[in-house]
Amino acid sequence: MTLSTLFTALAFAGLSLGAAMSASAAPGPDLPILGSPNTITAGVFLPSSGAAKSAGGSTQLDVEFHYGLPIPNPTPLKAVFSVGVETGSKSGGHSTIIPVTAGAQVGLGGGIYAGAGVGYYFLNQHRNSSFTDQLSTSTRVGGYAELGYSLPTGLLTVSAKYQAVQRGDGVVVALGLHF
User: Fold this and answer.
1) Could you tell me if 51 and 95 are in contact, meaning their C-beta atoms sit under 8 angstroms apart?
2) CA-CA distance, 111 to 113, in Å (whole number)?
3) What Cα–Cα distance (Å) separates residue 87 from each residue in 64, 71, 76, 133, 155?
4) Per-residue pLDDT band at 153 (split at 50, 70, 90)
5) Backbone angles phi, psi at 177, to 5 degrees
6) Domain ranges of the chain
7) 123 and 88 in contact (C-beta within 8 Å)?
8) What separation in angstroms does the CA of 64 have from each of 42, 135, 174?
9) How confident is the model over 93-151, as pLDDT tens digits?
């Protein structure tokens, strides 16, 4: 997969997200324990994958947009569509991972929530080494599990997520803003 294919896929995901957002006139109601349906998060990606760590470093930037789907739901579940980017560089190399996922969150009480999901992970990793210059782009199917806490104000969240994807697994720790 080429870099242009990767950016095309990201653009398509963004357009799909925009279409889904405009289809709903209002963002949807707050859910008990879970807060507003949409969140922007920023934090750090701590890769456990050797490929992501050697190309992008042991601490990388993570930014994600989570859209709570406006689906009538009588259960305490919230369906979530997410798109983000995890990126870092190290010694002339870089690692960029673009997760496009669908999942669900459920409130556990006391502001604590849990979630899980699956999706596509678009990877672009380049590593300089003394023997060879390695470039790898690929699309992988993966999944994640998360645990978070919504602060009492209802506007901020703190979350930890583990993503399991070949060449891009690791922990994401982030602070989020509901809107």
Assistant:
1) yes
2) 7
3) 12, 32, 33, 19, 26
4) confident
5) -120, 115
6) 3-178
7) no
8) 7, 25, 9
9) 899 999 999 999 998 988 899 999 999 999 999 887 654 556 688 999 999 999 999 99
Which tokens sit at 162?
């583990």
Q: Give the helix ranges, DSSP H, for the chain.
A: 3-23, 50-56
Paired tokens of 170: 């690791």
Report which of 55, 83, 53 is spatially closest to residue 67, judged by C-alpha positions.
83
Strand partners, 100: 83, 120
Domain 3-178 falls in which CATH fold?
A: Porin (2.40.160)
**C-beta neighbour count of 163 within 10 angstroms:** 26
Residue appearing with tokens 């490929």: 51
- CB contact set of 173 (below 8 Å; sequence gap of 6+): 43, 44, 46, 159, 160
Cα angle for residues 169, 175, 176 (degrees, 5° grid) = 105
Q: What is the pLDDT of residues 9-37, one digit of tens each?
A: 444 444 444 444 333 333 344 444 455 67
8: left (phi over 0), alpha (psi -120 to 50) or beta: alpha
Cα separation, 81 vs 115, in Å, equals 12
